[in-house]
Amino acid sequence: MFLSTLFLGLVLGGTYALLALGLSLQYGIARIMNLAYGEFMLLACFAVTMMFTSWGLGPLWGLLVVVPLGYALGWIIHTVMMRPLIKRSGGGGRLEVDTILATFGLLFVVQGLMLVTFGSDFTSYSYLDRGIGILGTTIAANRLIAFVVSLVIGFGLYAVLIRTRWGRALRAVALAPGSAYLVGIDVNKLGRQGFALGGALAAAGGALVSMFQTFSATDGVVFTMKALIVVIMGGVGNILGALIAGLLLGLAETFVAAFIDPGLTMAATYTMFLAVLLWRPTGLFGKAGG
């Protein structure tokens, strides 16, 4: 029972971590709190489902389709919708308020389009749902694949941010956007790239979640809230922190559901969130006083 719960918690946590990475980049680098983040994940869920059920294209192949589309959509939204708000804000605190209001409206626009196109019913498909035995316990193959792909994407992104010049420039914008200009970094261009990369990660998360979870057109806010909780727990803009916080949250929810009461999983989630917010507002892995 313990091993089964542990593995299920890690699988769920890996998914949460991937969900949070895109939002962490969008807020940490582009300074945009995207409240429509979950809706763009759902667009990927529906797109991959349609490709699988209509064309027989597996979700891992569908992942390769929706990720560049997610990047392109993020780029377009930043250019058309966010860039004017950034110019108007003049680099002040008004940007966060304006983008929150703008993406809140965008949330309902995208949700409405999905309801008209796909309806309000719950959607799912069957893909590799057979069990695989690991250390005496059984894990569904689709969940295991989603977990492995999530970790590969997450740690691959972390390696890019740490080891490449482009990644170090993105981190510089996240840590000190005002000073990044002084060393010749195009902050606006990298902010746009960070937001677009967040869109690509949202699409990747949606493709993987669709492999094992039932979803509907109104579930976006749930995904957004889970991603936001992980981002704050791990530290805004901290990629490694988001990965670890996602795993911790998945483990906490799974163990509470298995050994206490399934009805208390959301209570446990928000208790952890409030505890971090009150006693470690910079996140578990953020710098104190930053």
From TrEMBL:
<keyword id="KW-0029">Amino-acid transport</keyword>
<dbReference type="GO" id="GO:0006865">
    <property type="term" value="P:amino acid transport"/>
</dbReference>
<feature type="transmembrane region" description="Helical">
    <location>
        <begin position="6"/>
        <end position="23"/>
    </location>
</feature>
<dbReference type="Pfam" id="PF02653">
    <property type="entry name" value="BPD_transp_2"/>
</dbReference>
<comment type="similarity">
    <text>Belongs to the binding-protein-dependent transport system permease family. LivHM subfamily.</text>
</comment>
<keyword id="KW-1003">Cell membrane</keyword>
<keyword id="KW-0472">Membrane</keyword>
<keyword id="KW-1133">Transmembrane helix</keyword>
<keyword id="KW-0812">Transmembrane</keyword>
<protein>
    <submittedName>
        <fullName>Branched-chain amino acid ABC transporter permease</fullName>
    </submittedName>
</protein>
<dbReference type="GO" id="GO:0022857">
    <property type="term" value="F:transmembrane transporter activity"/>
</dbReference>
<feature type="transmembrane region" description="Helical">
    <location>
        <begin position="255"/>
        <end position="279"/>
    </location>
</feature>
<dbReference type="GO" id="GO:0005886">
    <property type="term" value="C:plasma membrane"/>
</dbReference>
<feature type="transmembrane region" description="Helical">
    <location>
        <begin position="227"/>
        <end position="249"/>
    </location>
</feature>
<keyword id="KW-0813">Transport</keyword>
<feature type="transmembrane region" description="Helical">
    <location>
        <begin position="61"/>
        <end position="80"/>
    </location>
</feature>
<feature type="transmembrane region" description="Helical">
    <location>
        <begin position="140"/>
        <end position="162"/>
    </location>
</feature>
<feature type="transmembrane region" description="Helical">
    <location>
        <begin position="194"/>
        <end position="215"/>
    </location>
</feature>
<dbReference type="InterPro" id="IPR052157">
    <property type="entry name" value="BCAA_transport_permease"/>
</dbReference>
<feature type="transmembrane region" description="Helical">
    <location>
        <begin position="100"/>
        <end position="120"/>
    </location>
</feature>
<dbReference type="InterPro" id="IPR001851">
    <property type="entry name" value="ABC_transp_permease"/>
</dbReference>
<feature type="transmembrane region" description="Helical">
    <location>
        <begin position="35"/>
        <end position="55"/>
    </location>
</feature>
